[in-house]
């Protein structure tokens, strides 16, 4: 693994009102066909990652998943994240968004994200205002993740399901959307170099798919 570098793409900071307004203007609830179609490869802009996703799509079944990006509408907005339980079969102990695989009973990816948020941390639907889907995100484990950006009203009380997560915490949106905090690392996948993001925050190490999705949020809402 090489030393981290920073992604040099600058954007002026925006306030919370403008963040939600831009999100509503730029996002929608159209479900991308690549969520379930293995022949449609989510593109990342990184040649190594794109090649990895092509290989994964041939070798593993597509695993549709949904996550919630809960932006808490405080005076200084935050993003609610979780730390996964250490005994889970995939991504054990990692920092993540509330979410998981889309079940047959789920009416939509949005419904799956809301269900998982309530199951994992007790975040009730009446506090959540869904805004729209972010870009489809593929992983090395065959997951196709469709994130839902949502405004969360303060005043909620969480109830942690320790079978799935061991903690839930908030990180300032301003920190996560500051490109100076977007480190890029690289690792090898079958002889190819691929990159991934990391956004260390205090004692929390936010990296992998979670950091990658946050980067996509930054590029969609702050740069365009």
UniProtKB/TrEMBL annotation:
Entries under InterPro entries matching the protein: CoAse, NUDIX_hydrolase-like_dom_sf, NUDIX_hydrolase_dom
Entry superkingdom: Bacteria
Domain Nudix hydrolase: 62-197
Cofactor(s) the protein needs: Mn(2+); Mg(2+)
GO molecular function (one): coenzyme A diphosphatase activity
Keywords, comma-separated and alphabetical: Hydrolase, Magnesium, Manganese, Metal-binding
Pfam families in alphabetical order: NUDIX
NCBIfam families, A to Z: PRK10707.1
Name of this chain's protein: CoA pyrophosphatase
Record organism: Bradyrhizobium archetypum
């Amino acid at each position: 693994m090489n030393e981290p570098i920073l992604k040099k793409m600058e954007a002026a900071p925006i306030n919370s009102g403008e963040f939600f307004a831009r999100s509503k203007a730029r996002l929608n609830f159209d479900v991308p066909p690549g969520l379930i179609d293995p022949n449609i490869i989510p593109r990342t802009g990184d040649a190594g990652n794109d090649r990895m996703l092509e290989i994964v799509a041939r070798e593993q079944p597509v695993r549709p998943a949904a996550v919630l990006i809960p932006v808490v509408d405080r005076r200084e907005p935050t993003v609610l994240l979780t730390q996964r339980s250490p005994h889970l079969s995939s991504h054990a102990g990692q920092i993540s968004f509330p979410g998981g695989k889309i079940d047959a009973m789920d009416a939509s990816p949005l419904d799956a994200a809301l269900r998982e948020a309530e199951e994992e941390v007790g975040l009730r639907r009446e506090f959540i205002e869904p805004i729209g889907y972010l870009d489809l995100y593929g992983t090395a484990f065959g997951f196709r993740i469709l994130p839902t950006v949502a405004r969360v009203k303060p005043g909620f009380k969480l109830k942690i399901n320790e079978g799935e997560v061991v903690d839930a915490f908030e990180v300032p949106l301003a920190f996560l959307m500051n490109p100076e905090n977007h480190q890029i690392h690289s690792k090898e996948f079958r002889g190819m170099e691929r990159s991934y993001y990391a956004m260390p925050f205090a004692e929390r190490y936010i990296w992998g798919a979670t950091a990658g999705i946050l980067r996509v949020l930054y590029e969609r809402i702050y740069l365009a």
